[in-house]
């Protein structure tokens, strides 16, 4: 009874659990954006291929991974609901049309490769190929709008800041997808991925700069956050990572390119969390400690997370180890 009483009245081991769960929430989102981001990027680059065999290779490259990668989005939603239920309710009620659009785009993207393989008919495959491209492009674009609305506490679904953020996230997924194809393909596919990846990296840097500049000029309440050393450091780090990505790609160091792509994703999500902190819902004026659940369930969730998260990571280590290395020329999605 004493131990239960302690769990109900004091944070586990005296840890700052509200802040740790805030960090965990954005870490999970970064994992989703990185892992499913290369799936989106490959889907966008699918539009650059006319040869059916090359299209099959792109589908084969992501085939073992994309449905597993989407698990991180489910975990993100579950974490937000479990740790910050008021924020979950506010965001989904405020932006429910945007949420449904994201889910529809994800469903379209997931259905397209399955339907693409069902028939050999040219018209059939062209339609589902376009569906794959549209779903892969629309999802990160809408996610960018969502996170910008969340950051700003916007009441309108669409704003210039949101559109720029959406375009930046689309460019980032191409950066991620091109780096992934650098590991998984050979020959012309790899060479073209390098070209598109470099262009996307430059585009991402420009779009990110424009987005941050616009947010700074139009949102006075966020200006102190922009001026913090951590945020300035993350902005400078992003520029350095883009330069490193381009150099690594041009020197054909594909593993390093992929690691740098991951760094760009995590830098962006850390920047978002840093600008938001300590407010987790600006529209409702909720800070992290205002929105967090009570001590007992928070302690119990922390214990459960410390057990379950290593298992999830173990699963992904096994998955990516089993399907490591470039795909063979004869491989298909099935």
UniProtKB/TrEMBL annotation:
Signal peptide from the UniProt entry: none
GO CC, alphabetical: cytochrome complex; plasma membrane
Pfam families associated with the record: Cyt_bd_oxida_II
UniProt-listed InterPro entries: Cyt-d_oxidase_su2 (IPR003317)
Any one GO MF annotation of this record: oxidoreductase activity, acting on diphenols and related substances as donors, oxygen as acceptor
Membrane topology value: Multi-pass membrane protein
Record-annotated membrane-spanning stretches: 20-48, 69-89, 128-152, 158-183, 195-216, 228-249, 256-280, 300-323
Keyword Cell membrane recorded: yes
GO biological process, any: aerobic electron transport chain
DNA-binding is among the record's keywords: no
Domain of life: Archaea
Predominant localisation class: membrane
Localization in the cell: Cell membrane
Keywords of the record: Cell membrane, Membrane, Transmembrane, Transmembrane helix
Protein's name according to its UniProt entry: Cytochrome d ubiquinol oxidase, subunit II
Species annotation: Halogeometricum pallidum JCM 14848
């Amino acid at each position: 009874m004493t131990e239960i009483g302690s769990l109900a009245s004091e944070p586990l081991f005296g840890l700052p659990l509200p802040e740790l769960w805030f960090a965990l929430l954005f870490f999970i989102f970064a994992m989703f954006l990185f892992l499913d981001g290369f799936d989106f990027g490959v889907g966008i680059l699918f539009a650059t291929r006319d040869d059916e065999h090359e299209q099959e290779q792109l589908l084969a490259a992501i085939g073992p991974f994309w449905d597993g990668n989407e698990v991180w989005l489910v975990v993100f939603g579950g974490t937000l609901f479990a740790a910050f239920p008021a924020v979950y309710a506010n965001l989904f009620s405020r932006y429910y049309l945007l949420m449904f659009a994201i889910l529809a785009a994800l469903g379209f993207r997931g259905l397209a490769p399955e339907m693409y393989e069902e028939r050999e008919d040219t018209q059939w495959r062209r339609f589902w190929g376009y569906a794959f491209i549209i779903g892969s492009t629309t999802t990160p674009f809408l996610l960018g709008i969502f996170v910008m609305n969340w950051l700003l506490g916007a009441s309108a679904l669409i704003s210039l800041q949101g559109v720029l953020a959406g375009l930046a996230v689309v460019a980032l997924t191409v950066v991620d997808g091109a780096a992934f194809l650098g590991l998984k393909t050979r020959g012309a596919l790899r060479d073209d991925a390098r070209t598109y990846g470099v262009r996307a990296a430059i585009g991402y840097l420009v779009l990110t700069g424009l987005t941050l500049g616009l947010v700074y000029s139009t949102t006075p309440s966020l200006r102190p956050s922009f001026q913090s050393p951590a945020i300035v450091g993350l902005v400078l780090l992003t520029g350095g990572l883009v330069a490193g990505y381009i150099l690594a790609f041009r020197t054909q160091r594909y593993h390093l390119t992929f690691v740098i792509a991951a760094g760009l994703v995590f830098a962006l999500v850390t920047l978002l969390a840093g600008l938001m902190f300590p407010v987790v819902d600006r529209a409702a004026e909720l800070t992290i400690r205002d929105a967090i659940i009570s001590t007992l369930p928070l302690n119990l969730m922390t214990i459960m997370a410390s057990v379950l998260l290593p298992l999830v990571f173990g699963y992904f280590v096994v998955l990516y180890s089993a399907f490591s290395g470039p795909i063979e020329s004869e491989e298909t999605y099935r």
